[in-house]
Fused response regulator/phosphatase
Amino acid sequence: MLIVDDVHENVELLKYLLGSEGFKTYTAFSAEEARLILVNTPIDVLLLDVNMPIQDGFSFCRELRGMDQFKLLPILFITSIDREIGFEEAMKNGGDDFINKPFNKRELVAKIHSVLRIKDLQDELTQEKAKFERELQAARKVQDQLIPEKKFIWNGIKAQTLFRPFFQIGGDFVDCFVDAKKLHIVIADCSGHGPSAALIGAMFKMQLFNLNPSMNLKERVDYIRKNMEIVLPEDYSITFCYAMLDQDLNLTYINGGHPAPLLFMNGQTKSLEGRSPMIMGIDLHANDEVQKIQLSTGSKLFLYTDGASEAMDSGSLFLGEEGMLRIFHQAVVEGGETLVNVQEKILQFCGERPPTDDMAMVCIQL
């Protein structure tokens, strides 16, 4: 505990009274001395006078509240200033309580114990937060292995993925992989954020691992849907798009409630039609419709999660699916890395307001 008062008699009295109650005390006679002690010594409570030379107590308290390490330090003002005026100023400048001189010892000790209990709870929360953040960082490393960003070429076709979780780990999923004759493109978005959504995303990937190579697209989606509906909580849902591209550039896909895939072909950009039900924790007996389209060399296929289309600008306007179509078209026309260009344009749209949802994207260049 640190006692700060320019009157030596006041300091000695408080030191004696609090020492008799078992408190370890430090003393300072100015804000400057107090500052040096606070920087170099762990202090649980600050008892602060108001009327001091050079820098008064209110100003010093305000200064401390502007420093991260002292934002939660309990500060009690002990002063002879009129209580009605002094209490208001104390609270305005960041104090936790106000005691008038001459003070009652029992009241002072009771208030010190009160702020110490609050500080203990705050310290416990801070420790738990630090522990949680360490666990999130570890989980992020695991998720990076589960959902690695990919960039490869298959039969002259360039595939590239991007994954940007908002909350260190997120519920988006994106992957591209190849079997003997086809390129598989999968993107999904679990409702919610954080660890629970990330675990559901991991379960989604497990279903991909368990698919039989001989399954066609409809059979694959039926299998994933059936198994995810068993484990998915009722208040969660998953949108997805599963596409397969063969060597003759025939694209087949099923879009389960996901933002429409975007296709740049012959100088034009359009949204691909067709939308089947999303995956939910309730069996809706969905009828997944397979869509087919013939692509051509020079085309670009782009899929994304709604964290991109739901990005907002400083005026709280959503980018929207039309905005994503426009951004994708511009990114392709300008050349360069399409996913990098798209991401930069989304951030430019947001301005100083960063995206508040996970973002996953995949681009296929033929």
About this structure: The chain has two domains: 2-128, 147-365. The first helix runs from residue 8 to 20. The two ends are 70 Å apart (CA to CA).
